[in-house]
Amino acid sequence: MSGERRKAVRAVVSGRVQGVFFRGWTVRMAEARGLDGWVRNRRDGTVEALFAGPADAVGHMLADCWNGPDPACVTDVAVTQAEDPGTTGFDQVPTV
């Protein structure tokens, strides 16, 4: 990753995204892309994630979120800029 520009974004994914292994899928995909951050369910039925890493890998992850795992039905991915947490790995964190 040396010399590559890092980017950090917060994504809130809407649709049928809880109870369909979306968080587990997100962890697996983010780790495969070398991203740092976290993913969690929200009580409003959405899934929220923070993705940080090389800008192109973040962009690809956001594009992947529109599909998610097979049982998911994504209707929106709302993205905002976020503060880069640094190199932390990628985790599933508690619901908020």
Report on the biggest sheet: 5 strands, mixed
Mean pLDDT across residues: 95
Spatial strand sequence of the major β-sheet: 4-1-3-2-5
Beta-strand content:
35-45%
Count of distinct strands = 5
SSE arrangement, N to C: EHEEHEE
Number of domains: 1
Helical coverage, percent range: 10-25%
Q: Shape, please? A: globular
Low-confidence stretches: none
The CATH topology, please?
Alpha-Beta Plaits
Task: Please state the second-level CATH architecture.
Answer: 2-Layer Sandwich
Number of helices: 2
Rg from alpha-carbon coordinates? 12 Å
Structural class: alpha+beta
**What is the terminal separation in angstroms?**
32 Å
CATH top level?
Alpha Beta
